[in-house]
Amino acid sequence: MNTREPRVKVTPVTPDISCLEIPTPFNVGAVNVYLVKGEKLTLVDVGPKTEEAWQALTDGLQVAGVRVEEIEQIVLTHHHVDHCGQLERVRQLSGAVTLAHPLAAPYVELDDDFMKFHDQFFLEMYQKSGVPRDMLVIVAKFHKLMKTFSEPSRIDVLLRHGQRVPNLDEWQVLYTPGHSQSHLSLYRERDRTMIGGDHIIGHISSNAFIEPPRDRSCARPLTLVQYRTALQMCADMEIERVLSGHGEIVFNHRELILTRLQKNWSRTDTLRRLLADGEKTAYELTALLFPALYEKELPLTLSETIGHIDLLTILHQIEGTEKAGVMYYRL
What we know:
The chain is of the alpha/beta class. It contains ten helices and 14 strands. The N and C termini lie far apart (70 Å). The model has no long low-confidence stretch (mean pLDDT 96).
């Protein structure tokens, strides 16, 4: 007889929603997975592919009174591995149907052709940003991370902005891109509850990660511009609580969003001050903005810098010039 005590925090949020804190190997800490009891038993996100996360998920579901085998559908808020990594393991055991935004598909499938394009996109972007040659190995490391903490799976039902979630008729899909191109949130008007993934997090600001365009003939999306717009959309909504992908429930979403939007302008002011003594590359600006972090967290910090460069560029507050394949920015 197994008498091991479950070692996972499970919090009832409403009579039909429970939050399971699933450990991750990443600096962000635990990820929140939500069990929603509707017409079909639904998981929102699943956690990364690690044995510790799997044990936490199975234990957490047990505490909530269900087994993995009983899960009928899985909704992904987005394609990052801390949210979708053990999708296939849950699917294999339960036969659950997966629902997600269309742009999550190539990441969830780990499609070979797309991943080659993905890696080439980042290699070229890093070179254009002035990243030193010896640091370009970060592209291969990021690819390895994705394959280590997730495995190929599939999406069965594609979700679009404004539609009702199948078998969860009270819940509406909100497309909330920026943190990722595939990011969506769920909203229930009855109790003004939003399951927000990584769109709105209380204790940390979400990074607007740079991503390649899905249509390879197009320019990359301006992710920070998207993120700010999606935040403003949510600020206009009547939301009582945001069930975040990490950390505690957010009850003051408007104040938090205003703070985050103002922080963007503070950072653009800093960038302009850094450019006052002459032109610089995105990599040089990243090193100045994040001196203690940029080498360890280059994808995150460079995305943050480029996002704010995008804001300044579309407002014609800075200009960029390409020299020998590298972009230099100046006032």
